[in-house]
From TrEMBL:
<dbReference type="Pfam" id="PF07729">
    <property type="entry name" value="FCD"/>
</dbReference>
<dbReference type="Pfam" id="PF00392">
    <property type="entry name" value="GntR"/>
</dbReference>
<keyword id="KW-0805">Transcription regulation</keyword>
<feature type="domain" description="HTH gntR-type">
    <location>
        <begin position="11"/>
        <end position="78"/>
    </location>
</feature>
<dbReference type="InterPro" id="IPR036388">
    <property type="entry name" value="WH-like_DNA-bd_sf"/>
</dbReference>
<dbReference type="InterPro" id="IPR036390">
    <property type="entry name" value="WH_DNA-bd_sf"/>
</dbReference>
<dbReference type="GO" id="GO:0003677">
    <property type="term" value="F:DNA binding"/>
</dbReference>
<dbReference type="GO" id="GO:0003700">
    <property type="term" value="F:DNA-binding transcription factor activity"/>
</dbReference>
<keyword id="KW-0804">Transcription</keyword>
<dbReference type="InterPro" id="IPR011711">
    <property type="entry name" value="GntR_C"/>
</dbReference>
<keyword id="KW-0238">DNA-binding</keyword>
<feature type="compositionally biased region" description="Basic and acidic residues">
    <location>
        <begin position="214"/>
        <end position="223"/>
    </location>
</feature>
<feature type="compositionally biased region" description="Pro residues">
    <location>
        <begin position="224"/>
        <end position="233"/>
    </location>
</feature>
<protein>
    <submittedName>
        <fullName>GntR family transcriptional regulator</fullName>
    </submittedName>
</protein>
<feature type="region of interest" description="Disordered">
    <location>
        <begin position="214"/>
        <end position="233"/>
    </location>
</feature>
<dbReference type="InterPro" id="IPR008920">
    <property type="entry name" value="TF_FadR/GntR_C"/>
</dbReference>
<dbReference type="InterPro" id="IPR000524">
    <property type="entry name" value="Tscrpt_reg_HTH_GntR"/>
</dbReference>
Length: 233
């Protein structure tokens, strides 16, 4: 008798809702700090409130949503302290990954590692050339993830990957103006410098990006001049 194929279980209702809300939050369709009303979302997606609460809990684990007693759920927000703390954590994980790579391989990283990093850099270059900010952000994150993954430490890679959504959320409402091609050029130089010089460069690189983010946020927060009255009669 032919063997019956085992059917793989599909995503649960909670997982499906998490994916949909995750996409709306990171696309900016739901803004930073916006309240997430359990009853409204249950009605909108025709789901039970129990399912909605489960999705909120998952998004809170990803730090995309905050849950407060008596106030409910809302999309997370980032002040400068939260930005710096997240960048410090990214720096600690990436630094340790590069240290492990240097301990194992010195300044001669295996081709299987450098090819994966180069492929991520090529995707960043293509996104930057296309002028698509959201795609560029994802590709930029993938370059750093490829560097961390190269250390072949599953726990470090897993913890770093958890920061991806939080990073994307933080950048969802700003745009840093780079001359076209300069972001991928900067990261090609950074990746090569890590191979040549080691993990000490990680914190310098992330400190630079932190200042760019803070400057962009401050610029976005500045009040725009309002047009004056039309002088024409």
């Amino acid at each position: 008798m032919p063997r019956r194929r085992e059917r793989r279980p599909g995503p649960t209702a909670v997982e499906t809702l998490v994916e949909r809300l995750h996409s709306e939050i990171l696309s900016g369709a739901i803004g930073l700090g916006a309240p997430l009303r359990e009853e409204e979302i249950a009605e909108r997606f025709d789901l039970s409130r129990h399912t909605v609460r489960g999705a909120f809990a998952r998004l809170a684990e990803q730090r995309l949503v905050t849950l407060e007693p008596y106030r409910g759920a809302r999309v997370a927000q980032f002040d400068d302290a939260a930005l710096i703390a997240m960048q410090q954590l990214r720096g600690a994980l990436e630094t340790e990954a590069v240290r492990l790579l240097r301990d194992r391989h010195g300044s001669r990283w295996p081709e299987r590692i450098t090819e994966r990093i180069s492929a991520a850099l090529d995707r960043l270059g293509a996104a930057e050339d296309a002028g698509e900010w959201g795609r560029t952000l994802r590709a930029h994150g993938a370059v750093h993830q490829a560097i961390v993954d190269a250390a072949e430490s599953p726990r470090i890679a897993e913890e770093y990957a958890r920061l991806d959504g939080e990073t994307m959320l933080m950048l969802s409402e700003i745009r840093i103006e780079y001359p076209r091609g300069s972001l991928v050029a900067e990261h090609r130089a950074y990746a090569q410098a890590l191979i040549d010089e080691g993990e000490g460069l990680v914190r310098t690189h992330l400190a630079h990006s932190t200042e760019l983010i803070r400057a962009a946020r401050a610029e976005d927060a500045r009040p725009r001049p309002q047009p004056g009255p039309d002088p024409s009669p």
